Input
Amino acid sequence: MRSLFDKWQRMRGYWIRCSFAFKDGREYLLIFNVYGAAVILETIQLLRDGGAKRVFFIGSLGGKDLPVGTLVLPTRIVDKTGFVSADNPNKQVVEPEEDSLKRLRRVLEDLGQAYVEGTIVSVPCVLHNIDHVKRFVEEEASVIGVEIETSTFLHYSQKEGLESYALLYISDNRKHDIISGAKSVQEARRKSLKTITKVAMKTLE
Output
């Protein structure tokens, strides 16, 4: 990933790891391994307080049937984490702003990058024994896959007035689990992460 930038500062931070990077005179704050809705919410508040105007979330998605490495543009995110309903009890679905969706689609098409659009579900970071959530995911045919941050990211970044984007890649599926060490799986993940980083930089120009 560092090869995509002209300059990259040393990694810093203990709570979350971050670095400032530069490309064509633009400065990017890169934040890594933000795991779970609680951490993403706190990160958004910090970015807002720090004067950020635009944010791009790169996430991994546990898919049902799509191959590992597939890029997914979420157009409808069902919130099962509870963080969205804590702010708005009547809100169960989060959608990206239409202008953000249009821009992201345009960038993907300009780069000739294949991707899939659809519905995903944001679930609690520890999903064990939450049977009603598991059943919903399995029984809802429109659901592409699950992850744990996107609904919170979009809901609260929109609430704070940040221009927000989210693009994910399939990191595991029914054939390859999250800890799969298969060389082809690892390579597909690395390639997708690098591709989405390129998309993010182009989108934020």
